[in-house]
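Methods — Computational structure assignment.
A single polypeptide chain was analysed. Its primary sequence is given first, followed by the predicted tertiary structure written as C-alpha cells.
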Amino acid sequence: MNKAILIDVIDPKTSKEEAQKRLEEIESLVKTYGGIVIEKVIQKRSLPDYETYIGKGKVTELKEHAEAMGANLIIVNNILKPRQIFTLQEKFDEKSEKIVVWDRVDLILKIFSKHATSTEAKLQIELASIRHMGPRIFGLGKDLMQQTGGIGQRSGQGETNIELMKRHLKKQEIAIQKKLDHYDTIGEGHRKSRQRKNLKTVALVGYTNAGKSALLNALTNKGAYVANKLFATLQTRIGTLYISPENHHENGKYVHGKEVLISDTIGFIRDLPPSLIQAFTSTLKETIEANLILHVIDITDRDIDKKIKVVEEILDQLGLHDKPKIYVFNKIDLIDHQAKIPKKHWHAHGHAAAQKTAEEHHYESLTFNPDQPIPGMLKAGRYTSHLLGWRTKEQQAKKLALYKGTSHVKPARLLKKYGEFNPIFIAAEEKLNLQKLIEEIRKIA
C-alpha cells in the first residue's frame, strides 16, 4: 500500500475553503490510484522556489515526516518543471531511496496507466508520459558519466549523454505517434462510414465523475463501467440510441425510427497540461467530430461553476467553442427536493413521456422522510420503494446525508446563468427525465 504525503503550494490570497477543496480532489486521486493519504500540507507562497518548488525548509520538514510516518510517496499538487522534480527527488534520496516524488500530472498518468485496457489507450499514456517525464534527464548524463568513469572526462561529456537521451526519447515518441496515427486512420474510416450512412453522433463530455458513463448506459444500455471515483474509465465507448418516430405512420407508410451514436470518453480535470490533452487527441476525435455535445454536470457539486469552466476551457483548446451543446445537469435524485425545477425544463412531448412525467411529478410532490412514513396507499412505480424507505440503513443514511448537503443547489440560478445552453435536469442512474433529453437529441437526428 502506497502511503502518501500531500503538499499543495497555493497563493497567499487563496481562501481556506478553496485550499481545502484542492486537497480533497488530490486525495480522491490518490484513493483512485490505490494509495492512502497519511498527511496533508498546505504551503502559502507568492512564488514557487526555483530549485525545489517548495523550498529547502519544507523539504527538510517533509523528510522528517516521511521517515517518522513511513511514507513512500511525496505528491506535490502542482505541475512542476523537470528540474524541480529532479532536484526534489535528489533531496529525498539523501534520506531514503524508497521515497518517490511526483507532481500532480505524474499521479494522473499513473491512474491512467492503471486503468488503461486497450492498446490505443496504453500507447496514448506512454506518449503522454514521455512528453511529461522525458525532459527529466538532468541526472542521466551524470549517471552515465559515473558509469564510464568520471575522472579525466571532459566537462561536456554529461551534456552529450543528455543529448543522446533526448534523441532516444524523441525516436520513441515518433514511433508511438506512428502507431497512434494507425489507430486514428481506422477511427477516421469508421467516422466516414457513419457519415455516408447519415448516422448522427452525440459526444458526452464533462468533469471526471460527473456521471457520463451512467448516462451512456441509461441511453444505450451499453453496459459501460461505472464507479464513484475519478477516471474510472479512459477509452472511448460508443453506444446506439434508437429514437422512435413521433408518428409511426405517415401518408399511409410506416415510418422507421432513427439511430444516433452516443460516445463517451475520458473525463476532464483541472490543470491538465496541453501536452497531455494532445496525447489523447485520437481518443477525443469522436468528440471533435460529433454533431452535438452533451456537457454532463454533477448538479450536487459545490464547485459546479469552476468545473464547468474547466471543461469549457478544454473544449476551447480542442476548437469546439462553436459546436452545438446542451448542458445536462445530472444527479437530480440526490438534491434537496425543495429545489424545484421549472416544468418547461422537465416535461417532454408524446403520450409515453406525458405518463412518465405524471409519475415524476407525483414523486416530486412528496417529501421523503424515513422518520415519518407516508400514510395511506401510494401509486405503484419506480419511486415508491424510495418513498417507503425500502433501502438498507446504509443506503438510507447516505441518501439523507446527500439531501441535507445539497441546500446550496439552486436550479433557477443555473437556468439563469447557463440558459443559452438549453439546460436539462436528469438523473442518469435513476433514468429520470431522459425523455426530455432524447427529445433534444431527436432534433439533430
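Note: The first strand starts at residue 2 and ends at 10.
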